[in-house]
Design a protein that fits this description.
The structure holds 2 protein chains of 2 kinds. By secondary structure, chain A is of the alpha/beta class. Chain A has a single domain, classed as 3-Layer(aba) Sandwich (Rossmann fold). Chain A contains 6 helices and 10 strands; from the N terminus they run E-E-E-H-E-E-H-E-H-H-H-E-H-E-E-E. In chain A, helix 3 runs parallel beside helix 5 and helix 4 packs across helix 5. Chain B is α+β, with helices and mostly antiparallel strands. Among the domains of chain B are: about 200 residues, no CATH class; about 190 residues, no CATH class; about 120 residues, Barwin-like endoglucanases, CATH 2.40.40. Chain B is about 55% helix and about 20% strand. In chain B, the strands form 4 sheets. Chain B has a 6-stranded mixed beta barrel. A 6-stranded mixed barrel of chain B has the order 13-14-20-17-19-18. A 4-stranded antiparallel sheet of chain B has the order 2-10-1-11. The chains are: A alpha/beta, B alpha+beta. Chain A: InterPro entries: AAA+_ATPase (IPR003593), ABC_transporter-like_ATP-bd (IPR003439), ABC_transporter-like_CS (IPR017871), MacB-like_ATP-bd (IPR017911), P-loop_NTPase (IPR027417).
Chain lengths: ~240, ~800
């Protein structure tokens, strides 16, 4: 973890984070003492097998979940001290989420799904601008049921970035997609990272995707086992799996 | 060990059933309550109907309730055999019936009594009395009476108590030796009143000899009751009786249908027959609808489970039966509750009936055949509601069911297609599109919530109508304080005599002339009310409060009477006068009065006296008195022998309000309970289903930064729209129900409900349903706080 670019601002700082779920009579340790720092504008991939704890970590960073122990700072604020409404406010202002199953609102068109966010954000781009970023401006009046999986995911990305979030958190964004559409989606994420400078964390168990990242964080059994820095990042369109 | 055996006996699917029920307990209870309401109202109304019919039939039969009745002035006993010879007549009972003024201990104001003779030597054969307490009259006793039960109870009179009666001008002490019930007075109401006033009107039975001596009726009678042979032609019998009695001052024979007590009972039974099935139908339709929506949702959630079961080899029938059992368990639970509730209702109902009717006993017992019918009707309704949902889910091939359902299709709503969409926030669009996509469900939900508004409106409408009638009758029509009737028509000088009583401020004479009013083949017995043209103490007023003057010549009559006769304004009708020289008059109908009680005919006092070729006569008068001298006036009136009846408006009003208010209170409480059950059932289930269907969306919105407050608005917005649309619809439904009810009840002879709905009724209905909706919404809103954001995001629905 000493290989971080020192000139960049620290966005997240996690210290000795643990998370235990009580599943009935069994305790499941999802995180066992994680230390992590994320820096402004970087593209990080969290790589690990399913059940390794990477989603838990992402959820905690995104303010969806709270750790059992340990502290998390977001730009100096102690996230772990936030109550529910403060966490809601944090998600509302700073975080963009992209999910494996898109989670679009079926009763709203592409543009309206994006507008949901721009209506409650303080300095958003227009829904159309956001859709243009993911090349879907022409599909803006379509309902989710009229879009392909890849298109739905790109609308979800537009929705996530429309408020100009400080961080973009993507949980298996290509998990439900074929290679071709998956690459289109990754390309959109990469361009947003580069063009808007949004700190981006992508969860995947697909090692190929790690080649796009500035840093690759390997998670296993609730711990960070190693961190790689890519000297050369690959473009999304160069990937294949 | 025991437990092990039992759990072994339960099939796994049945265990799933129990757990599904536990998971859906809130919704299951809401539906069960609606079913229970349906079963309860069905059991109650059908039980009450049958009980009323059988109670009445049994009492009539046991007491040999007569079939034809006639009054006359004075008929020699020798005419009895002539009456018996009329073909079709099985038995004739003659008697003396006289109205008297009563002076009851501890009762300031005068009361009215009806004395009826019974043979000295044997009990009457017709209209036999049921002895509730005490003993029969001793033969030859001239001061003993049997009193009607309600009269005794209202005045707290007991066996051995005495009351004074002014008999033929003489004050006589009468001792109560027994308390009785009569088939003629199941509903005991003073002629001219609409509800019983047992405190001021009592019927008493006395030995014939004593009564005939008191009224100089030895060797004669003035009233007759007739039993008919099976298959006798009643119209023919009435015609012949009139022929025989006319020379003796006959006032016209009439059948049971014109006998006041029977007429009222008949109206109630008819009412119950028509309205008794309305409530159960509403409840069971709502229950069917709720089953449909709840199962549709449950089965959508269990789509993959169903697929798995099919993959394991369960047949469509096995799976369908599994869900049918789910429906039947809820229905049965509701039915059991409903049967208990129905019996509870029957208890209230019996109390209400016992307040107005005098039967030896009103036994509303549970008829298991009715319970069984109620349960099977409820189960049928439930299964009809559920079957479409079950069939839709069960027939999906397993491989298809294993895949998630395709995303729902949405379209812009009509509002947006009209170009108004720009004005809507996205949240509003979500709500509207959801409602539009499930159009049928939305419409039925709106209708069902509307029904609960309607039920309250109908319940309150009866109160409004009664309030209106009370105001009309007692504050606008009757402007007098006291009405007196004379034993016989007297010179109008009586008005001067009355006016000279200290405390009497104003007197107006009136004359009530018994007559048959005939037009073409139809006739009715009425009392023609003859009033001064400038009458001020009573009004001819229709239901809309418009007033008429007594016409100087010709008639004003109740619209309903004209309809029965087939007469119109301008037609000449015959008035066959049944007293004095008994002339037949031909008079034009000048106006029809759309009034609310009784069959009334009005003319002016002058014209009536002229037509009867008599010196000015009156059979009664209206009095206005100084309220400070009430007691003195009452005392004076009690002492006037020429008066046969004194009614005090204030006490009539009080009695009306006491009887009606108690029964209305019960009815309104029951109505409100039912309306709340429907509103809660529909809105709560709607909210739970909306929550289940939308939890993924709502969780997504929470994740991307929406507050709890904001997502509640989306979830509850849907319910809000349904409720808001349901309110005006419900007012419309209530209005229509009330209108139908008033139209139906408008044809009753005794009392016709006017169609009046006060604004406060709508206000009450709206606020009750709104409160129930908000309550359901809040119950569901709490669940939003426990939305599992992460789980929702990880899974695909």
């Amino acid at each position: 973890m000493s290989s971080n670019p020192p000139h960049r601002e620290r966005v997240f700082e996690a210290h000795d984070v643990t998370k235990t779920y009580h599943m009935g009579e069994v305790d499941v340790q999802a995180l066992r003492g994680v230390d992590l720092e994320l820096y402004s504008g970087e593209f990080v991939v969290l790589l690990g097998p399913s059940g390794s704890g990477k989603s838990t970590l992402l959820n905690i960073l995104g303010g969806l979940d709270v750790p059992t122990a340990g502290t998390i700072r977001y730009r100096g604020d102690v996230l772990t001290d936030f109550d529910d409404s403060a966490l809601t406010g944090y998600r509302r202002r700073h975080v963009g989420f992209v999910f494996q199953f898109y989670n679009l609102i079926p009763s709203l068109t592409a543009e309206e799904n994006v507008a949901l966010i721009t209506e409650i954000a303080s300095n958003p781009m227009t829904p159309l601008e956001a859709l243009s970023l993911v090349d879907l401006a022409k599909r803006r009046t379509h309902f989710p049921a009229q879009l392909s999986g890849g298109e739905q995911q790109r609308v979800a990305i537009a929705r996530a970035v429309a408020k100009r979030p400080d961080v973009l958190l993507c949980d298996e964004p290509t998990g439900a997609l074929d290679v071709h559409t998956g690459i289109l989606v990754l390309d959109a994420i990469q361009r947003i990272n580069e063009e808007l400078g949004t700190t981006t964390a992508v969860i995947t168990h697909n090692a190929i995707i790690a080649e796009m990242a500035d840093r690759v964080i390997h998670v296993s059994d609730g711990k960070i086992v190693s961190t790689d820095v890519n000297s050369t990042k690959r473009r999304a369109e160069e990937l294949e799996w | 060990m025991q437990r092990f055996v039992i759990s072994q006996m339960l099939l796994s699917l049945d265990r799933k059933l129990l757990r599904d029920l536990r998971a859906l307990w809130g919704q299951a209870i809401a539906i069960a309550l609606v079913i229970a309401s349906g079963v309860a109202t069905f059991v109650n109304s059908q039980n009450a109907l049958r009980s009323l019919e059988s109670t009445r039939a049994a009492f009539y039969e046991r007491s040999r309730f007569a079939e034809v009745f006639a009054g006359a002035k004075r008929v020699p006993d020798s005419m009895k055999s002539r009456l018996e010879e009329i073909p079709g007549v099985a038995h004739v009972e003659t008697r003396i019936v006289e109205g008297v003024n009563l002076d009851i201990p501890d009762l300031n104001e005068p009361a009215l009594g009806q004395l009826i003779s019974v043979p000295d030597t044997h009990p009457p054969l017709l209209n036999q009395l049921y002895l509730r307490r005490g003993r029969w009259l001793k033969p030859g006793a001239d001061d003993e009476v049997l009193a009607s039960e309600k009269f005794a109870a209202a005045n707290e009179l007991d066996i051995g108590d005495t009351i004074a009666a002014i008999i033929n001008g003489r004050r006589k002490q009468l001792r109560i030796v027994g308390v009785v019930l009569s088939p003629e007075y199941v509903f005991q109401v003073k002629p001219g009143d609409i509800v019983p006033d047992p405190k001021h009107y009592g019927v008493m039975w006395m030995n014939e000899e004593a009564l005939s001596m008191a009224f100089d009726m030895e060797g004669a009678f003035n009233d007759v009751a007739v039993e008919l042979l099976h298959g006798a032609n009643i119209d023919e019998v009435i015609f012949r009786m009139d022929e025989l009695l006319d020379p003796y001052g006959g006032r016209g024979a009439f059948g049971r249908k014109d006998q006041i007590s029977h007429m009222i009972l008949e109206g109630d039974i008819r009412g119950l027959k028509t309205t008794g099935l309305i409530a159960p139908t509403i409840f069971l339709c709502v229950a069917a609808f709720l089953f449909n929506v709840v199962l549709t949702r449950t089965l959508a959630l269990q789509r993959e489970q169903i697929a798995a079961l099919k993959a394991f080899g369960y047949t469509n029938f096995d799976i369908a039966w599994h869900y049918i059992k789910f429906v039947l368990v809820i229905t049965l639970a509701g039915a059991v509750l409903g049967t208990v509730g129905g019996n509870l209702l029957a208890g209230f109902f019996t109390e209400m009936l016992a307040r107005v009717y005098q039967y030896p006993e009103i036994l509303i017992r549970v008829r298991w055949s009715i319970v069984a019918l109620a349960i099977s009707v409820a189960a049928t309704a439930a299964l009809l509601g559920a079957s479409a949902a079950i069939w839709r889910a069960v027939r999906v091939p397993p491989a298809e069911a294993m895949r998630p359902e395709p995303p729902a299709n949405f379209k812009p709503t009509l509002i947006e297609q009209l170009g108004l969409g720009r004005m809507l926030p996205n949240v509003a669009r979500m709500v509207l599109r959801q409602l539009q996509r499930q159009r049928i469900k939305t419409c039925v939900s709106i209708f069902a919530v509307g029904l609960s508004v309607g039920i309250i409106v109908v319940g309150q409408f009866m109160q409004d109508a009664i309030d209106y009638v009370t105001d009309l009758q007692y504050n606008r029509v009757q402007l007098y304080d006291i009405q007196v009737n004379t034993v016989e028509p007297l010179s109008t000088d009586i008005t001067h005599a009355l006016a000279s009583i200290p405390g009497v401020m104003h007197v107006e004479p009136m004359r009530s002339v018994p007559a048959r009013v005939r037009y073409g083949p139809h006739y009715r017995r009425v009392a023609v009310q003859s009033l001064p043209t400038d009458v001020t103490l009573t009004q001819l007023m229709d239901r809309h409060r418009a007033t008429w003057q007594p016409p100087p010549a010709g008639l004003v009559m109740s619209k309903i009477l004209a309809e029965q006769l087939g007469a119109k304004v301008g037609d000449l009708v015959s008035i066959e006068v049944l007293e004095g020289k008994r002339p037949t008059l031909k008079l034009p109908v000048l106006a029809l009065l759309d009034d609310i009680a009784g069959l009334n005919v009005y003319t002016s006092l002058d014209s009536m006296n002229r037509l009867l070729r008599e010196a000015p006569r009156a059979s009664g008068a209206y009095l206005r008195i100084d309220q400070n001298q009430q007691a003195e006036v009452y005392q004076e009136l009690k002492e006037i022998p020429a008066l046969a009846g004194v009614s005090v408006r204030e006490y009539a009003l009080q009695s009306f309000q006491d009887t009606i208010a108690q029964n209305m209170g019960t009815i309104k409480a029951i109505n409100l309970t039912f309306a709340v059950i429907i509103a809660l059932g529909v809105v709560y289930n709607g909210a739970r289903i909306a929550l289940s269907e939308r939890s993924r969306e709502l969780a997504t919105l929470r994740v991307i930064g929406f507050t709890r407050h904001e997502i509640s608005a989306i979830l509850l917005g849907e319910l809000g729209v349904i409720t808001v649309l349901a309110l005006p619809l419900g007012m419309g439904i209530g209005w229509s129900f009330a209108y139908l009810l008033s139209t139906y009840l408008a044809n009753e002879e005794a009392f016709r409900f006017p169609f009046i709905i006060e604004k406060s009724t709508y206000g009450l209905a709206v606020s009750v349903v709104l409160t129930a909706s908000v309550l359901s919404a809040l119950l569901v809103r709490r669940k939003l706080d426990h939305l599992d954001l992460i789980a929702v995001l990880k899974s695909r629905e």
